[in-house]
Amino acid sequence: MSLADVVRKAESKINAFNTHRSKKSGWVPSVIGYTGYGNEEQVRVFARVLMRAPHREPRTAAARGFRQFFTIQVGGFPVRVTAGDKTIEAVTDDNGYLEVLVEGHGLTPGWHEVTIAPADSPTEEQSASAEVLIIDPSAKVGIVSDIDDTVIVTMLPRALIAAYNSWFVRTDSRKAVPGFSDFYAELRRRHTPNRHTLTQTPVFYLSTGAWNTFGTLRRFLQANALPKGPLLLTDWGPTPTGLFRSGQEHKRVQLRNLFIDFPDIRWVLVGDDGQHDPLIYGQIAAEHPDRVAGIAIRNLTPSEHILSHGTTFPIDRLERTHVPLIEGADGYELLKQIDKLP
Length: 342
Hints:
Shape: globular
GO molecular function: phosphatidate phosphatase activity
CATH architecture of the largest domain: 3-Layer(aba) Sandwich
Structural class: alpha/beta
CATH topology of the largest domain: Rossmann fold
Protein name: ABC transporter ATPase
InterPro entries: APP1_cat (IPR019236), Mg2+_PAP (IPR052935)
Radius of gyration: 20 Å
Low-confidence stretches: 58-69, 157-162, 238-244
Domain Phosphatidate phosphatase APP1 catalytic: 141-299
Number of domains: 2
Number of helices: 8
Number of strands: 16
Organism: Corynebacterium lactis RW2-5
Largest sheet: 8 strands, mixed
Helix content: 25-40%
CATH class of the largest domain: Alpha Beta
Strand content: 25-35%
């Protein structure tokens, strides 16, 4: 039996014990909705079911980061998802997560709310709404943005620094990398004839960060005037093949999903050179040159590189690609080169 198997079994037993104990204390399964996305034919809905104490006061935005990681997930929990004209039933996975594809929803382009509720005897307290973005069929260019060390200063995924930023820094004190609000606003303006229909230039935030940080990240984006968009996060738990999920594979899978769901959109991929974004984006561009409109890389400082991975220089270089590439220390430097992108 591998170490990953041992950890997964231990995690399952601990969670089962906590679930039983919390139920005896009056806690109930409650849904948390995440941002989803889709087109006029289908929409992806993301959510999670966790145990929650009834009538608990909501945590403030300034709470210590570690509080968002203390959760009791509810696996195998049946829910009912309603998106527009369509209602389907689904079941959460072992970690309480839900990702479903709802077809024939009848929603128009723009932001909408869908409802996720327990399939049996749902109550308002246990149910949740989740925002979904239906992309305008006229969209030709979209943006995929990394988060950590690209638009937010976190020095991830170096273990000790990551733990400090995620667990101990107050969730309303994260610092933004300068200039990205202006850079994204100009990118969207260039590809949106009508400023009132910004679904024509969608922005997706693709990160190896945990779903537990969803609320914190959403508030951060809003507070720093970054464009609203679906967040595509991951789960840090053990898998059948390892102690942690592969962040690189998570990004590749999510990018390929976007390519499949939106075959007419070409994407500007934005990341940083602190970890593997140059390698991932370069490989994706080489595999799908017709789907990548350009690549923008934020260059970390030598001190940021040391905190990120222990050396003063990038650990990965961008593979040779024929798609337009710009690099800079922050959003303002990228904005100066924006004419190099489509």
